[in-house]
Amino acid sequence: LLAVQLRSACFQKCDPYIPICEKGLERALVKEGTSEPGHCCDQFECRRPELRCENVHCDDGGELEEECPPDSVSGASYVPEGRCCPIYPGHHQIMERGHISKSWADFKLGS
After folding, report:
1. Cα 46 to chain center, whole Å?
2. pLDDT tens digits, one per residue of 17-74
3. How far apart are CA 73 and CA 56, in angstroms?
4. Which of 9, 20, 43, 109 yields a CA-CA distance of 20 to 30 A from 79?
């Protein structure tokens, strides 16, 4: 957690590698970038949501926007595996409100 907080939320060089997902897909973090040259950008892919999150309400992160220097952009939000709401790198965690649908819970429990 501390390492994530220490990483800057403003990256310009990585912006071209952040996919814009089609409706019905969500951006998922595949691999975190490192400080190693050539591997500094996080890697994302667009995936179908694993959970049924219809009854979960997520904040859009708009109130979290931080001012970046003119030559930078904010880090990409993404939905972690097993969650419904995106996280915003460099910001406090957004809480999910609501519940996961019963049919998903039944599926996971093998009912």
Report:
1. 11
2. 889 999 888 898 899 888 788 888 889 999 887 777 777 888 765 554 556 666 666 6
3. 28
4. 109
- Nearest alpha-carbon partner for 96 in 108, 87, 104: 87
Q: How many structural domains compose the chain? A: 1
SS3 84: coil
The 8-class DSSP code of residue 15 comes to G
Q: Which residues contact 55 (CB under 8 A, 6 or more apart)?
A: 98, 99, 100, 101
The separation between CA 57 and the C-alpha centre of its own chain, rounded to angstroms, equals 15
Tell me the backbone φ, ψ of residue 53, rounded to 5 degrees.
Answer: -110, 25
| Residue 61: CA count within 13 A, CB half-sphere | 18
Separation CA 105–CA 93 (nearest Å): 23
Locate all alpha helices (DSSP H) within 1-111, ordered by sequence.
2-6, 102-109
Q: Are 15 and 73 in contact (CB under 8 A)?
A: yes
Neighbours of 79 (CB within 10 A): 22
